[in-house]
Amino acid sequence: MTSTTMVGPTKKISPNFEGYVTFVPKQAGQRIRVTFTSLKLFHTYKPKNDLLRVYNGRSTSSTKLLRELLNEQTPISLISSEDDGSLTVSLKSVTGTPQDGFVARIEAITPSPMTFASASATSPTEKVKSAAGEHDKPLLLLTLRTEGVSPALTLSELELSTQGTSTGRPGASYPLSWRASPSPPTA
How many Å is the Cα radius of gyration of the chain? Predict the structure, then answer.
């Protein structure tokens, strides 16, 4: 499988369009990867937005929802985690304002093991004042980068330390350490 355009540059989404397609790899052990290279969907009012959804497997059950897309920056790649490697893409247009739709590249890939590549910690871009007892205040943005796809890694430990810094000093750095390990195999 190489490239598929369900709805795209040659015509707009039909008003009230609803449909889905399921992609299944030909070879056992492969997984479907969909890469959206263009997204042009109606998105001004939530109840009337176009609904582009990607599901693990062969159904459109909410328990299998991998991601819902609307006006994200492309390209976006998603890979099936279903045992048979299949992936389902559905599109529903609930408005009479047709848009161009999307363009996606579909590939059957052989997954490589997931490995830890790098980590970084940064301060949030917006400075937020907080007081003792407050909850849900962004203090640290942690980005973990991996390579490969399966089995997924899990974060098993995150240690924050003020060792070697002046506690409470504005602009002080706080060394971080972390460990990532593969998820235990499932039977």
Answer: 21
Write out pLDDT tens, residues 120-138: 888 777 766 777 777 777 7
Total-model pTM: 0.66
Residue in the block written with tokens 């849900």: 136
Q: How would you class 187 by CB atoms within 10 Å of its CB: exposed for 0-12, middle for 13-18, buried for 19 or more?
A: exposed
Q: Which residues pair with 117 in a beta bridge?
A: none
Residue 125: which of 113, 141, 142 has the closest Cα? 141
Biggest CA pair distance of the chain = 62
The amino acid present at 137, given as its one-letter code, is K
Query: How many beta carbons lie within 10 A of that of residue 89, not counting itself?
Result: 25
62 phi and psi angles, rounded to 5 deg: -60, -25
Task: Please say whether the beta carbons of 7 and 99 come within 8 A.
Answer: no
